[in-house]
Structures are given as structure tokens and as C-alpha cells.
Design a protein that fits this description.
The protein is mainly α. It has a single domain (3-128), classed as Orthogonal Bundle (Arc Repressor Mutant, subunit A). It has five helices and three strands. It has a three-stranded antiparallel sheet with strand order 1-3-2, covered by helices on one side. A hairpin with a 2-residue loop joins β2 (150-154) and β3. The longest helix is centred in the first third of the chain and has 26 residues, at 3-28. It is globular, with a radius of gyration of 16 Å.
Length: 162
């Protein structure tokens, strides 16, 4: 086996393991889990949110979605875990879809989502959206939007500190 094919095989294995963690995270988000599995569960939830909310965005767009998710974790108005924030009812459009729509079909986008999620789980941050806790695509105009609290635009998303 060549180095290149071994590298591709290992990357594929990593993607498979991370996807399994993410899928298990969805069902375990409401259940009691051992403390040592929490970082993997949180990584899976954050990676899934980045992937489904921003896979077509630039790296900055993915960082912005991750930052908003983590800003919510830090806020007293949202659950205090990544999985709690991601799976809170009607907060992210992809979580309200049927589970067959939760599939990961784009390997490179998934790998990028895992890398960005790991950076945030390890305590990293991205200041590009400040204290934003909300965003939406430019294609919609949700009833909660408040232009006075608009922080800015990153890619196809507008970000707000509400």
C-alpha cells in the first residue's frame, strides 16, 4: 500500500469514526453519558452543525457558524452544551429535517467541519462575528431579525447579536 493510499484510507477512517460519533451524539444529546465521552459528543454535534449549516461557505463562513454555536453555549439564554444548543428545537434548520437528510455526502466538507469543530472544542475562538447568537441566509427574512443588532455578513449569512 502506498503512502498516498494509506493517507486516503486513514482520512476515510477518520471521517467514518467522526460521522459515527456525530450520529450517536444526536441520540445521546438528551441521555446521560459518561464524562469521558462528552468531548467526542460535543465535537460530533458541532461538526454536524458546521457541515449542515455552512458546508458551501468559505472557511470564514464555517468559522462564523461555529462561533455562533459556541456563543450560544456561553449565553444564559441557551443550553450550556454544544449538543444542547444544536438540538434545541427549531434553532437550526437541518435539525428539523428527517434523519435521512442528516447524511454526510461531501467528504472534504466533513473533514473541514471536524477540523474547525476541534479547534473550538479545544478552546479556540473566532472574533469575526463578535457576540452573534443568530444568523440567517440572505435568501430569507426571519421574523426575529433586528437590523439594529446586525453585526455583519459573512458569505451568504447575516449575523446578529440579539
Amino acid at each position: 500500500m502506498s503512502y498516498r493510499s494509506l493517507s486516503i484510507h486513514l482520512k476515510s477512517l477518520l471521517v467514518s469514526v467522526a460521522l459515527l460519533v456525530a450520529l450517536l451524539s444526536a441520540s445521546a444529546a438528551k441521555a446521560e453519558v459518561p464524562a469521558e465521552s462528552i468531548p467526542a459528543q460535543e465535537l460530533g454535534c458541532l461538526a454536524m452543525n458546521i457541515y449542515h449549516e455552512a458546508r458551501g461557505e468559505t472557511v470564514k463562513g464555517k468559522l462564523a457558524v461555529a462561533a455562533v454555536t459556541m456563543n450560544r453555549v456561553k449565553s444564559k439564554y441557551y443550553p450550556d452544551t454544544v449538543c444542547g444548543v444544536v438540538w434545541q428545537s427549531k434553532q437550526f434548520s437541518w435539525t428539523g429535517t428527517k434523519t435521512e437528510h442528516h447524511a454526510v455526502n461531501e467528504t472534504q466538507a466533513w473533514v473541514n467541519a471536524i477540523e474547525i469543530a476541534q479547534m473550538f472544542i479545544d478552546g479556540g475562538n473566532w472574533e469575526g462575528v463578535g457576540e452573534a447568537t443568530h444568523y440567517h441566509t440572505i435568501a430569507v427574512s426571519p421574523n426575529w431579525k433586528n437590523d439594529d443588532q446586525l453585526i455583519g455578513q459573512v458569505g451568504n449569512h447575516l449575523f446578529y447579536a440579539l
